[in-house]
Automatic annotation (TrEMBL):
It comes from the Bacteria. ATP binds at residues 95-105. Its EC number is 2.7.1.148. Keywords: ATP-binding, Isoprene biosynthesis, Kinase, Nucleotide-binding, Transferase. SUPFAM superfamilies: GHMP Kinase, C-terminal domain, Ribosomal protein S5 domain 2-like. Residues 203-279 form the GHMP kinase C-terminal domain. The lineage of its organism: Bacteria, Bacillati, Actinomycetota, Actinomycetes, Kitasatosporales. Transmembrane segments: none annotated. This is 4-diphosphocytidyl-2-C-methyl-D-erythritol kinase. Pathway: Isoprenoid biosynthesis; isopentenyl diphosphate biosynthesis via DXP pathway; isopentenyl diphosphate from 1-deoxy-D-xylulose 5-phosphate: step 3/6. It is an enzyme of class 2 (transferase). Residues 67-145 form the GHMP kinase N-terminal domain. NCBIfam families: ispE, PRK03188.1. GO terms for biological process: isopentenyl diphosphate biosynthetic process, methylerythritol 4-phosphate pathway; terpenoid biosynthetic process.
Length: 297
């Protein structure tokens, strides 16, 4: 018997970043939107823990116990006093090291899949606590939809959305390390007073109303200057999307994937075609959100 879970990628429509905390993390006001680009995680009973991965970026995914999916299985098994004896297979469509929470998606997916396979009966609250131990983005991968994350981004409040938003994502030629981008944020912030991160009321209202124009005027990412500083060519991709009619352009999370908000599905395809023709990125995808979080298929 196998269990397969489908888990979406995310885009951060607002990422407000506070000053570095004593533990090295940053307090955030992180407004997540789950979008329809998915990894599928399948768990099957096996003699011992094993991870395999397929997909265009599979070669970049670690297959040892550092894989977030393996760490999720180990964490749940330890809580139940059992062995994590499963084969975890990841069908990966979310870009690796792209700032779209691909590894986090696999962590949340493996956790839900193992909980189902083992009849481990972890409550939603216990699953969320394990997710938060695995990484700041992992709880959101479990819940999906739209949510505000505070603290490290792991303390979630679900947000209302009044419609579907259409996005284009441009994948870059290389990845960016999330810790490196936060370090660059700290370097650029030196000598400046960093305000407390707060969610933008205009942005929350735009999401609730499903108002794409208002959302376009309210999106922001405090990590964008740091991502651009480490990866200056991203400015060319942003420019190409803006020129093609995107309502808003931004770096997704810690980057280097860039995200473009389009007025509708048709215009999203036009922006995607222009980005493909621009030669400023590795590949281009369209996806709409919000979509559901980790779901057993
Ligand atoms: C950039 C975002 O993707 C936006 O959603 C997240 O904040 C990152 O979430 P994540 O990849 O799950 O990150 P984690 O695995 O928890 O942390 C990786 C590293 O990112 C930095 N980090 C992450 C989250 C946070 N609130 N402050 C940080 O400074 C820390 O250097 C940390 O060691
Ligand atoms: N299941 C996994 N899939 C992809 N990468 C993983 C996985 N588990 C661990 N990793 C490691 O995590 C690193 C970051 O990959 P990931 O795709 O999660 O980045 P990301 O999308 O930028 O993350 P985030 O948006 O949460 O900051 C990879 O370079 C890889 O070494």
């Amino acid at each position: 018997m196998s269990v397969t879970v489908r888990v979406p990628a995310k885009v951060n429509v607002q990422l407000a970043v506070g000053a570095a905390r004593p533990d090295g993390f940053h307090d955030l006001a992180n407004v997540f939107l789950a979008v329809g680009l998915y990894d599928e995680v399948t768990v099957t009973p096996a003699d011992e823990l094993r991870v395999t991965c397929e997909g265009p970026d599979a070669a970049e995914v670690p297959l040892d116990r550092t894989n977030l999916a393996a760490r999720a299985a180990i964490a749940l098994a330890a809580r139940r006093g059992i062995e994590p004896a499963v084969h975890i297979h990841i069908a990966k469509d979310i870009p690796v090291a792209g700032g779209m929470a691909g590894g986090s998606a696999d962590g949340a997916g493996a956790l839900l899949a193992c909980n189902t396979l083992w009849g481990a009966a972890a409550s939603r609250a216990e699953l969320l606590a394990i997710c938060a131990e695995l990484g700041s983005d992992v709880p959101f991968s479990l819940v999906g939809g739209a949510a505000l994350g505070i603290g490290r981004g792991e303390q979630l409040t679900a947000l209302e959305t009044g419609g579907t938003f259409h996005w284009v994502f441009a994948m870059a030629e290389r990845g960016l390390s999330t810790p490196a981008v936060f370090r660059e944020f700290d370097r650029l912030a030196q000598g400046r007073q960093i305000p407390e991160p707060v969610a933008s009321p205009d942005l929350l209202e735009a999401l609730a109303k499903g108002d794409v124009e208002a959302l376009a005027g309210a999106v922001s990412n405090d990590l964008q200057p740091a991502a651009l500083s480490l990866f200056p060519e991203l400015a060319d991709t942003l420019e190409a999307g803006r020129g093609a009619g995107a309502l808003a352009t931004l770096v997704s999370g810690s980057g280097p994937t860039t995200a473009f908000l389009a007025p509708g599905a048709e215009s999203a395809e036009k922006v995607a075609a222009a980005l493909r023709a621009s030669g400023t990125c590795r590949s281009v995808r369209t996806a709409a959100g919000p979509v559901a979080g980790a779901t057993v298929l």
